[in-house]
Q: What sequence folds into this?
């Protein structure tokens, strides 16, 4: 056996192993089998598409082996199409092309439904959390805690405003935020506004607005993250599935057509 024969056989063996191992992998990935569940469909489709290039490479190796065999003049004997390994490779390629083509719209629809459900769940959780905040702030203990904080901060502000040296140091301190410096300056010029400021800063309404604003901001962030994640999933898996469908279909249809032409279109040479 010469080197070309060894190389041809190696390509065929590697191609067959890649194809069979990938098909076995597809079967194992389907378990636990639950095709009616949308999350199972999303996960299984993503896994199929992620591994979809392996059978394509295997078929390419297999066909390269047959091409190398024929290029050295060792053409295989004529046999029935069902006995020709190339026929099954082209047929498998056609079937996989159809499978990946069908997965493309199915996956996009599943992602669309998943996106809608995820956003709805985020909104419902935000509404529920807002209701819990409002109910919690209506508790009498909260009013007592607010009054305690108001009194403590009021005492600290009056003590600071009465000490000019500490006040000047605070206004000159670069680590103090500008917003707080402006507030201290205003309170120094109008000390009577301390109670009004404390009333606005520490009240059930203000705390409710702050917490509700935080909840809504978090909801918007979660919605943006969900939209980005699901859009990436739709584009990455969907486009890859479509490209695989095109690649498998071209190889399968072209191969089956060429085999049919070569077998059915030959004419016996005319006698001389």
A:
């Amino acid at each position: 056996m010469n080197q070309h024969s060894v190389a041809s056989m190696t390509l065929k063996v590697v191609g067959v192993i890649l194809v069979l191992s990938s098909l076995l992998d597809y079967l194992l990935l389907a378990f636990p089998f639950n095709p009616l569940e949308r999350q199972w469909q999303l996960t299984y489709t993503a896994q199929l598409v992620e591994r979809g290039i392996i059978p394509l490479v295997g078929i390419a190796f297999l066909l390269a082996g047959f091409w190398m065999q024929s290029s050295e003049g060792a053409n295989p004997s004529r046999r029935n199409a069902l006995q020709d390994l190339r026929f099954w490779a082209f047929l498998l390629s056609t079937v996989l092309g159809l499978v990946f083509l069908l997965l493309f719209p199915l996956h996009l629809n599943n992602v669309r439904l998943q996106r809608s459900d995820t956003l709805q769940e985020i909104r419902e959780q935000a509404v529920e959390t807002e209701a819990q905040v409002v109910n919690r702030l209506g508790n009498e203990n909260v009013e007592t805690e607010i009054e305690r904080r108001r009194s403590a901060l009021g005492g600290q502000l009056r003590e600071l405003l009465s000490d000019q040296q500490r006040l000047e140091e605070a206004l000159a301190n670069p680590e103090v935020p500008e917003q707080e410096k402006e507030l201290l300056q205003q309170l120094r010029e109008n000390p009577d506004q301390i109670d009004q400021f404390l009333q606005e800063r520490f009240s059930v309404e203000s705390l409710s607005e702050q917490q509700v604003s935080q909840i809504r901001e978090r909801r918007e962030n979660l919605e943006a993250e969900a939209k980005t994640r699901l859009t990436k999933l739709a584009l990455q898996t969907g486009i890859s599935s479509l490209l695989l469908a095109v690649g498998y279909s071209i190889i399968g249809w072209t191969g089956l057509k060429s085999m049919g032409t070569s077998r059915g279109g030959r004419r016996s040479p005319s006698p001389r």
